[in-house]
Amino acid sequence: MEIFAATDADVAAAVRATDIRATFGAPQPPEAADPRPRPQGERISLRGVVKSFGARPVLRRLDLDVPAGQFLAVVGRSGGGKTTLMRLICGLDAATSGEVRIGETPVTGLMPQARLLFQDARLAPWQRVLGNVGIARGPGWREKAHAALRDVGLADRGREWPFVLSGGQRQRVALARALVSRPGVLLLDEPFGALDALTRVEMHRLTERIWTEHGFTVVLITHDVAEAVSLADRVVVLRQGEIALDVQVDPAGELPRGRRSGAAAAALHERILAAV
Ligand SMILES: Nc1ncnc2c1ncn2[C@@H]1O[C@H](COP(=O)(O)OP(=O)(O)OP(=O)(O)O)[C@@H](O)[C@H]1O
């Protein structure tokens, strides 16, 4: 295993080379300054997907199409198969039968165009923040990692160690690490579940902004129906391995994302809760 620790000189050079003034929510510099290729959201499709562990079926003949660029939220009770679904989409696990595709490509192993974020940030403690974001290395990794840190409002934290960061900041580093390769699909497995309410709202706004700027396809798992209604284009309820509800959040385009309140949002909230 390669263990790499960026030296202070490395980090200082990377920080000097980019704009460290950009902070969370600040306007982003022109695309030309970013060394990463422009991302393309990718379609996700599942056809007749079954996943069993031993004799126990967890996903039962699932059909699901997520159009490129859509923000889909998946809600459901514990044990309903949500994480299993994510693992099949990114190729961490294989379906027992049926087919999963990202774009036109059948998922037969780990998919480089899909990135998965968990509830815990899973940072490498022996790497500084910049090293964590660029952990996959490759040509130009420092510049790419720094651009991703700037995306998440942590441009000036690259030289710090993960243990000095707050939980929300660690999740932002994990998000930057996922974004560094400009994925077509971002899979979020309850990444906000362990955060306090204010940090969670910050992360909602950050996720929405980055999704708008990057244009990737998002699948967000959450137990929080309000979070699903607030952020997503569409909500799917997964119950005992089957889709119990599949609903567009705002088909008429009347509910501003992030401020979805009022009777229509409340009715949708109730409908989702009834299906969970
Ligand atoms: N590797 C595995 N081996 C055996 N059973 C598994 C495995 N992974 C998941 N399961 C089982 O599959 C079912 C669905 O698990 P999954 O983690 O997908 O649910 P979930 O909806 O994400 O739950 P939660 O909301 O609690 O995270 C559970 O009963 C779980 O015990």
TrEMBL record:
<keyword id="KW-1278">Translocase</keyword>
<keyword id="KW-0547">Nucleotide-binding</keyword>
<keyword id="KW-0813">Transport</keyword>
<protein>
    <submittedName>
        <fullName>ATP-binding cassette domain-containing protein</fullName>
    </submittedName>
</protein>
<keyword id="KW-1003">Cell membrane</keyword>
<dbReference type="InterPro" id="IPR027417">
    <property type="entry name" value="P-loop_NTPase"/>
</dbReference>
<dbReference type="InterPro" id="IPR003593">
    <property type="entry name" value="AAA+_ATPase"/>
</dbReference>
<dbReference type="InterPro" id="IPR050166">
    <property type="entry name" value="ABC_transporter_ATP-bind"/>
</dbReference>
<keyword id="KW-0472">Membrane</keyword>
<dbReference type="InterPro" id="IPR003439">
    <property type="entry name" value="ABC_transporter-like_ATP-bd"/>
</dbReference>
<dbReference type="InterPro" id="IPR017871">
    <property type="entry name" value="ABC_transporter-like_CS"/>
</dbReference>
<keyword id="KW-0067">ATP-binding</keyword>
<comment type="similarity">
    <text>Belongs to the ABC transporter superfamily.</text>
</comment>
<dbReference type="GO" id="GO:0016887">
    <property type="term" value="F:ATP hydrolysis activity"/>
</dbReference>
<dbReference type="Pfam" id="PF00005">
    <property type="entry name" value="ABC_tran"/>
</dbReference>
<dbReference type="GO" id="GO:0005524">
    <property type="term" value="F:ATP binding"/>
</dbReference>
<feature type="domain" description="ABC transporter">
    <location>
        <begin position="44"/>
        <end position="265"/>
    </location>
</feature>
